[in-house]
Amino acid sequence: MSAPAPAAPAAPRAEAVLDIEGMTCASCVSRVEKRLQKLDGVEASVNLATESARVDYPAGLDTADLVAAVREAGYEASVRRAVRPAEADEHDHDAPAHVHDTDDRPGGVTLRTRLIASAVLALPVVVLGMVPVWQFPGWQWVSLALATPVVVWGGWPFHRATFANARHGAMTMDTLITLGTGAAYLWSVWALVFGTAGQIGMSHDGGLFAPVHDPSSLVYFEVAAAVTVFLLLGRFVEQRSKRRAGASVRALMQLAAKDVELEDGTRVGIERLQVGDRFVVRPGEKVATDGVVVEGHASIDESMITGESAPVEASTGSAVTGGTLAADGRLIVTATSVGDDTRLAHLARLVEDAQAGKSRVQRLADRISAVFVPIVIALSVVTLVAWMVAGGFSGESIASGFTAAVAVLIIACPCALGLATPIAILVGTGRGAQLGVLITGPEALESAERIDTVVLDKTGTVTSGEMTVTSVTPIGGADAAEIGHLVGSLERASEHPVARALAALAAPAATVTDFAGIAGRGVTGTIDGHLVFAGRPDFAEEQAGPLPAAAAVAIDAAQAQGATAVVAGWDGAVRAVIAVGDAVRPDSAATVARLREMGLEVVLLTGDNEGAARAAAAAAGIDRVIAGVLPEQKVAEVARLQASGHRVAMVGDGVNDAAALATADLGLAMGGGTDAAMHASDIALSGHGLQPVVTALSLSRRTMRIIRGNLFWAFAYNVAALPLAAFGLLNPMIAGAAMAFSSVFVVLNSLRLRSAR
Question: Which of the 8 DSSP states describes residue 670?
Answer without folding.
Answer: P
